[in-house]
Design brief:
With 85 residues, this protein is mainly α. Helix content is 60%, strand content 0%.
């Protein structure tokens, strides 16, 4: 049986693993993409937001892995973003 919070939504480990990964990826894309109402956020701001929301909005283990990528391999991420814009 899946655990539901008081609003009837899935939480924690009951959220499918790939959905937890997608939440991190989608948020990263939203923050680092230029929008009509704002420019892309600096990577330092993105990293701080992931740190702040780790364990609440984002799965802490997935956030830790993603933060490691951003802090040590961001140049590779930028290459992928540039290639697929």
């Amino acid at each position: 049986m899946m655990v539901l919070d008081i609003l009837g939504k899935l939480k924690g480990e009951d959220i499918p693993y790939f959905a937890r990964i997608a939440a991190v990826a989608d948020t990263f894309d939203a923050m680092t993409s230029k929008r009509t109402y704002r420019d892309a956020l600096p990577i330092e701001t993105v990293i701080e937001e992931f740190k702040k929301c780790k364990g609440t909005q984002f799965d802490p283990n997935i956030a830790d892995v993603f933060l490691d990528i951003l802090e040590h391999h961001y140049d590779e991420v930028e290459d992928i973003q540039t290639r697929y814009k």
